[in-house]
Design goal:
Elements lengths: L2 H17 L1 H8 L5 H6 L16 H13 L4 H10 L1 H7 L8 H14 L1 H15 L12 H18 L4
Length: 162
Amino acid sequence: MSFDHFILKQQYEKVRGLGDRLALMKQRIDWKPFIPLVRSVFHDDKETGGRPHTDELVVVRSMLLQAWYNLSDPELEFQCHDRLSFRNFLGFPEKIPDFTTIWKIRDRLQHEGIDVLIWSELQRQLDEKGYQVKKGQFRMPVSLKQILERNDIVKRKSQGKR
């Protein structure tokens, strides 16, 4: 871990203490099913070399941030660099994908129909956990807020807090 990376994580601790709702979502979702879905659109050719592909979880989590906060590709790139809560949600990657990488990967996922599988898996997990999010509402930040507020209330009640 670089010194800069260490400093970012230290600064993030303050944000977490103030109540980072994205961190709660990051903990509640099982991310493993998404990895092979995204990996299927990468065509790594180790023999001829080439640039390594973007981390699969960074791709999925970027898609979620973009949908939940209704961000354009350039705005998503900016917010991922600017907001510590976004960086934490992405897993503090060494490299945040630029907006052209984001749209190229999203286009590949859409072309292969993988984006539908990703959203379906996310919805399945949310439904399984009893979260009240309807399909097609991911573009509304209030949906994410409602999910996480509900989780906060349940957590506080289980700890005997109000």
